[in-house]
Task: inverse folding
């Protein structure tokens, strides 16, 4: 006996909604207004800067994981654990920065090809490098991230440095500086 239209509709409701397509409803680089007492230009500038920091922090995070997997030699165990710990901490920062961008009304970078296009941290080779080279790369990457807020402060007038902007600086600056201090013999590179 043929199923009624009513029965077919119920069965259709239980079917997963897959292969959906549609246009994006907020393009990258476009802001939606949020009632956070920040001018549109300040919010836009903050989103642009935060996306740069996000790309660099994601790259730094992935650099830690690469080194976690590829480190070798007598210090393998200590570095293997240390690099993974710092990976996790950078991962938390990535989430905080990305969500701050959304809070400002922007769209955060997310996917690896977009991050690779944006970051200014030099691309490492695919192969394995010696531990001193790994640490040197990480310190250089940290320094790139730490230096950015200093440049950023020069871009915005003090009156526009409202709490979302200032606390964003604090969010990544303090943990990033403390990471540099984890390599005592080379912590001099983490200048204030
Ligand atoms: Fe692991």
Result:
């Amino acid at each position: 006996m043929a199923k009624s239209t009513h029965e077919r509709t119920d069965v259709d409701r239980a079917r997963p909604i897959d292969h959906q397509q549609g246009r994006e409803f907020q393009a990258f680089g476009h802001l939606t207004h949020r009632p956070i007492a920040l001018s549109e230009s300040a919010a836009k500038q903050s989103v642009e800067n935060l996306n740069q920091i996000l790309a660099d922090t994601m790259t730094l995070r992935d650099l830690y994981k690469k080194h976690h997997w590829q480190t070798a030699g007598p210090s393998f165990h200590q570095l293997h654990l240390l690099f993974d710990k710092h990976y996790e901490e950078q991962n938390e920062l990535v989430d905080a920065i990305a969500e701050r961008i959304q809070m400002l009304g922007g769209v955060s970078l997310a996917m690896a090809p977009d991050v690779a296009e944006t970051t200014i941290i030099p691309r490492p080779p695919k192969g394995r490098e010696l531990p001193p080279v790994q640490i040197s790369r990480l310190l250089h990457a940290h320094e790139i991230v730490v230096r950015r807020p200093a440049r950023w402060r020069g871009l915005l007038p003090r009156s526009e440095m409202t709490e979302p902007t200032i606390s964003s600086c604090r969010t990544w600056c303090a943990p990033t500086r403390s990471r540099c201090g984890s390599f005592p013999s080379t912590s001099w590179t983490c200048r204030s």
Remarks:
- The mean pLDDT is 83.
